Each structure stands twice: as C-alpha cells, then as structure tokens.
C-alpha cells in the first residue's frame, strides 16, 4: 500500500482471486459429476440424463456450501 496506489493493489488482489477460483470450480464440478455418476446412478439406474444433470447441479451446490462452512469455521486444520 505504501508503494502502489490502492486501486492497483485491488486490481492485483482481484486477479489473484480469479486465478484461485478457476481451479476450484473445476475441482468442484468434477467432484459433483463423479458423485452423481458413481453414487447416485448406482442407486437410481433408471435415471435419465436430465435427472442426472439436475442431481449434479444440486450436489455442486451442496459441496460448495460444505466447503464454505469448513473454510469459515477452520475445521479443516487441527488446532494446536
């Protein structure tokens, strides 16, 4: 903040945030589709592609909320 203007520091921070969101979103979508195909499709084999797509979207939202909860409460790391 002493070297650069605040708007430039904000621009660097926004670029870092976007750079972190892209791999996280890919991992989230991959995990939800894996759970949909390997877990949900096992219990409901007669599901259509539309139903599987809806379930995958729901699992994506659920996983995102679980990860957000763990992030905000810091339960991912043991306390020392």
Describe the structure.
By secondary structure, the protein is mainly alpha-helical. It is 79% helix and 0% strand. The radius of gyration is 18 Å and the shape is elongated.
Low-confidence spans: pLDDT under 50, at least 5 residues? none
Number of strands: 0
Main sheet properties: none
Terminal-residue CA separation = 32 Å
Rounded mean pLDDT score: 87
Order of helices and strands: HH
Global outline:
elongated
Q: From the alpha-carbon coordinates, what is the Rg to the nearest angstrom?
A: 18 Å
Secondary-structure topology with pairs:
Layout lengths: L5 H38 L5 H25 L7
Helix pairs in contact: 1-2
Write a concise synopsis of the structure shown.
The chain has helices at residues 6-43, 49-73. It is mostly helical and 80 residues long. It is elongated, with a radius of gyration of 18 Å.
Name its key features.
mainly alpha, 80 residues, elongated
């Amino acid at each position: 903040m002493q070297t650069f203007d605040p708007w430039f520091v904000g621009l660097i921070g926004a670029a870092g945030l976007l750079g972190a969101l892209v791999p996280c979103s890919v991992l989230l979508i991959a995990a939800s589709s894996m759970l949909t195909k390997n877990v949900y499709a096992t219990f409901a084999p007669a599901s259509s592609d539309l139903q599987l797509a809806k379930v995958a979207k729901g699992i994506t939202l659920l996983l995102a909320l679980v990860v957000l909860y763990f992030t905000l409460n810091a339960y991912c790391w043991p306390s020392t």
